[in-house]
Amino acid sequence: MIRAKKSLGQNFLTDENIINIIINTTEIKNKNILEVGPGTGNMTLKILEKNPKKMIVIEKDLRLIDELNKKFGSKIKVINEDVLKVNENLISKEKLTVFGNLPYNISTEILCKWVLNVNDKDLWFDNLILMFQKEVAERITAKPNTSNYGRLSIISNWKLNIKKICDVSPSCFSPKPKVDSSLLFFTPKKNFFKISNSKNLEKISRIFFMHRRKMIKKPYYQLFNRNNRIIEKLGIKLNLRPQNLSLETYLKLTKEYEKLRN
């Protein structure tokens, strides 16, 4: 039996009921499937039973790759790579449906990378079905004017519709994590707000939320050089806190920031 590596954030999903909930979240038959962090292949097996057109897995741990190859052979294509270093746009010429029990220590990094790799014309995925630490899932799905709302909420909801499927208890994993988990379902928005460079949205949200309990006056003046025309145009009050501004407001601020820099 293969032991999970703590250094890789491995917690293998073993509960069959939860696996069934996950794979029934979206259509699999005749679809191109990507599974990230397949572990010992418990969910891989269930996905293959639903007859996907193609099954690709990304796994960094060589011990697990040997196990997966023994179990599934040519039924799967294995990419032995760190998921953060993979160019998603080169994995498949066709769109992928992505399943992932993500390592908690890099889950937000993975999601942000994927969101920011969604360009206007050529989406590389049609759905993402991903497991996160519950606390992280609450930040991803948070609405304005709540304590969990922040940079992660803004970046995640910019291009994606997000739906929570269920919470998952530690007993569903081996070894048991010390936290609860949540399963989220992401679909790309047909029309999302266009900005020139996603790094500008990252910068705006980072600077605004650097001091989330303080008024936005200081970060606003830092970014916009005391330009009051923009706050008047967007109807923003400088005595608000960062969590009081909507996603749309952050996107419009990013657009204005880009105009100033051009």
What is the number of beta strands?
A: 9
Shape designation: elongated
Strand order of the largest sheet: 4-3-2-5-6-9-7
Domain tally:
2
In sequence order, what are the helices and strands, one letter per element? Answer: EHEHEHEEHEHHEEEHHHH
Which radius of gyration do the C-alpha atoms yield? Answer: 20 Å
Separation, N- and C-terminal Cα atoms? 58 Å
CATH topology of the largest domain: Rossmann fold
User: Which structural category do the helix and sheet elements fall into?
Assistant: alpha/beta
**The CATH fourth-level homologous superfamily of the largest domain:** Vaccinia Virus protein VP39
Rounded mean pLDDT score: 92
What is the name of the CATH architecture of the largest domain? 3-Layer(aba) Sandwich
Our estimate of the beta-strand percent is 15-25%
List the uncertain runs. none
Helix content estimate? 25-40%
Characterise this structure.
This protein has helices spanning 16-23, 42-48, 62-72, 107-116, 134-140, 151-159, 198-208, 217-224, 228-234, 247-261, and strands at residues 12-13, 32-36, 54-58, 77-79, 96-101, 125-133, 160-168, 173-174, 181-188. By secondary structure, it is α/β, with parallel strands linked by helices. It contains ten helices and nine strands. A seven-stranded mixed β-sheet has the order 4-3-2-5-6-9-7. Strands 1-8 form a two-stranded antiparallel ribbon. The chain folds into two domains: 6-188, Vaccinia Virus protein VP39 (Rossmann fold, 3-Layer(aba) Sandwich); 198-261, Helicase, Ruva Protein, domain 3 (Orthogonal Bundle), CATH 1.10.8.100.
